[in-house]
Amino acid sequence: xxxxxxxxxxxxxxxxxxxxxxxxxxxxxxxxxxxxxxxxxxxxxxxxxxxxxxxxxxxxxxxxxxxxxxxxxxxxxxxxxxxxxxxxxxxxxxxxxxxxxxxxxxxxxxxxxxxxxxxxxxxxxxxxxxxxxxxxxxxxxxxxxxxxxxxxxxxxxxxxxxxxxxxxxxxxxxxxxxxxxxxxxxxxxxxxxxxxxxxxxxxxxxxxxxxxxxxxxxxxxxxxxxxxxxxxxxxxxxxxxxxxxxxxxxxxxxxxxxxxxxxxxxxxxxxxxxxxxxxxxxxxxxxxxxxxxxxxxxxxxxxxxxxxxxxxxxxxxxxxxxxxxxxxxxxxxxxxxxxxxxxxxxxxxxxxxxxx
Length: 356
Ligand code: UFG
Known about the structure:
By secondary structure, the chain is of the alpha/beta class. About 40% of the residues lie in helices and about 15% in strands.
């Protein structure tokens, strides 16, 4: 199989074409950053994305950052036969499966869409991975599987899985169960469930970043969109929680760190001989409150943010952050970037976006 690249800045002749990695949802927020890190680590990512929640401009951004031309297949992962065509076309050594819906609130309104898209997509990827003997797979899971942690703020991979508080969260729990059952059946496959905490920020080039559709639900895009004037003001949901300053605490992790965790994950899977499944937290191990984020933003950007306190948001976890010892021990990976860098990169991305 030949590499489909055209570039004058990179020696593709020397590339090992046994390094094809399927990246479903590779044009999305975490996907696009992961594609960049894969290329920088000698892999050849192939993006499968139908652009329903992403934009082709992110592929252009990846190509600009890496100086490569990317193979992209405009394919819905729920379309089995179209997805199978991609498996026939490339001899994948690994798969990173991002493609899924991810908005908690929307999942409550449209549960069937979430179960349909997130579970059928995963089932198709697993069916084809086993059929085409692709043995290394990373699944995008979430710290949402822990729900509201009991009597602790820091969660390890052994912490209890609480009943999901949204259909979105349930698709991640069911996804992990499907994977556990597949591995328990003796399938010859090695799988990592990476449980992300709060991925934020953007690539430092400001060529790729988060592209929220409609009014953003997540904190950092809401902050940057308020500062740039797309939103009038930002509401902090609740200031009477039992936390350092009354606002909720999360483990915000730079998206490039999250992307690198996938590269470490694929490398580690390649070294393992026997089938396995491991759940691994992907966070920084540090908690940051909503107010701390606001203050960090004001400090980093020099902008005064128009914010107000409002009522609590239903379903919000009060305080949660990752125990990161397992990712260090197993993957030899840890987050390197600070919350300040995350906020700065998210702000640079927002400012750049406005110029498009
Ligand atoms: N927040 C505000 N105002 C806003 C937006 C958010 O105060 O306009 C607060 C929230 O109340 C919360 C914190 O900022 O306390 C973080 O909220 P996000 O929506 O950015 O992130 P969540 O932790 O709620 O959600 C994330 C992922 C979900 C995942 C969940 C698991 O976005 O996909 O973690 O806990 F399910």
